[in-house]
Prior knowledge:
The chain has helices at residues 2-14, 18-27, 31-34, 42-48, 51-75, 83-95, 108-116, 123-138, 144-162, 166-201. By secondary structure, it is mainly α. Helix 1 (2-14) packs parallel to helix 6. It comes from Anaerocolumna jejuensis DSM 15929.
Amino acid sequence: MRYLLFIAAGYCCGSILFAYFLPKILYDVDITEISDDKNPGTHNAFKYGSKVVGTEVLILELLKGFLPVFLGTQFLDVSNNVFAVVMAAPVLGHAYPLYRHGRGGKAIAVTFGVLMGLFPIITPLSLLVFFYLLFSCVIRISPDSCKSIVTFLCFGVSALLLIDIRAVAAGCVVITAIVLYRHYQKHMTESLEISLFRKRVV
């Protein structure tokens, strides 16, 4: 029962799209309407809101992943396989919030929050930070969506190989699957919109 409570709480926390609500409340700006990728994420909060609101969104997005998982590590057994679902719940909530009919964000910031919540287990967070830095500063990949896909692929594989706690490794793999599938859906939606636009123009 405790695991179910943390899974439900994590999903509900994750489904609060701060990048959508804060710009709308403070600036009357709907970033899902005016942004190119329609993504209710931290990047668009910075781009279409302001540095202040972007920073606030970033902190809140990290917290909504951090708090459910960190509290879970205090009350649950992280080696229990169900803990993988506790880890994935905030990410799933952000990517597929019920009240927006599944139209959530790409779940990058909330993933960092989840991995921060595993402290003192730092290997998962270290891996994700390493691959983001690698593909941002050393082997530069663009656009950002492609960089995120490659980063999470490497993160998921390395988590399986390097993380000793199987439940935590499984949680990283499940998170990777959610993020990759969300990116795939976003790409397919954008491609369909471009195709329909071209047909209307022709």
